[in-house]
Amino acid sequence: MRLNFGVYTAFELFPNMARAPFQVLVLPYRRGAYGIIEYALFRRADLDVWQGIAGGGEDLESPETAAAREAFEEAGIPHRRPLTRLVSVGAIPVEQFSNRATWDPAVRTVPEYSFGVDMTNASFRLSQEHSSVRWVEFHTACSLLEWDSNRAALRELDAQLRKRSSEFEAHAV
């Protein structure tokens, strides 16, 4: 599959690369007028649900490397944009993954590592995996997100960003 912005996935370039037994979630955000924080949600083309950028690790990638790669492949987010690793780690049942045949049979759940990425004054280029992107505030994002793990990560990211805003405002006075 060729992405609509001219980039091949690692699986296309290296078809023998193994799918690692972990998932990553990347939640883009931006600060708008008056410090309002908005989050980008992506509508999956195949399932018609809203989610963050998500995908699996490949071969011996670290979660951070996989998150940066997925963010680039699915939304054109440059690798130089720093990712903030969240404490939130979801657990996805192994049965959700069709390419689990090479994994240890003892693996019952796959960890989903979560990250935030600041996209203030930046734009996206969607891959064919998503039909649209929508910027929304926290409460709307929580109501639109399909997966509990996405909502948990969003709650953590939102709390971190609001705390940073409060600390910044306190130091500015």
Low-confidence stretches: 1-14
Radius of gyration: 16 Å
Instruction: Tell me the span between the first and last alpha carbons.
Output: 53 Å
Q: What is the CATH class?
A: Alpha Beta
Average pLDDT metric: 87
User: Hey, roughly how much beta strand do the residues contain?
Assistant: 25-35%
The helix fraction, in percent, is 25-40%
Count of helical stretches: 4
Structural category is: alpha+beta
Number of distinct beta strands: 7
- The CATH fourth-level homologous superfamily: Nucleoside Triphosphate Pyrophosphohydrolase
What summary fits the major beta sheet? 7 strands, mixed
Shape: globular
Name of the CATH architecture: Alpha-Beta Complex
Give helix and strand order, one letter per element, not per position.
HEEEEHEEEHH
What is the fold named in CATH at topology level?
A: Nucleoside Triphosphate Pyrophosphohydrolase
Query: What would you call the quaternary organization?
Result: single chain
Q: Explain this structure to me?
A:
The protein is of the alpha+beta class and 173 residues long. It has one domain (10-172): Nucleoside Triphosphate Pyrophosphohydrolase. The protein has helices at 10-13, 63-75, 138-144, 148-172; strands at 19-31, 37-44, 50-51, 53-58, 83-93, 109-118, 130-136. Strands 1, 2, 3, 4, 5, 6 and 7 form a 7-stranded mixed β-sheet that branches. The radius of gyration is 16 Å and the shape is globular.
Could you write a compact summary of the structure shown?
The protein has 173 residues and is α+β, with helices and mostly antiparallel strands.
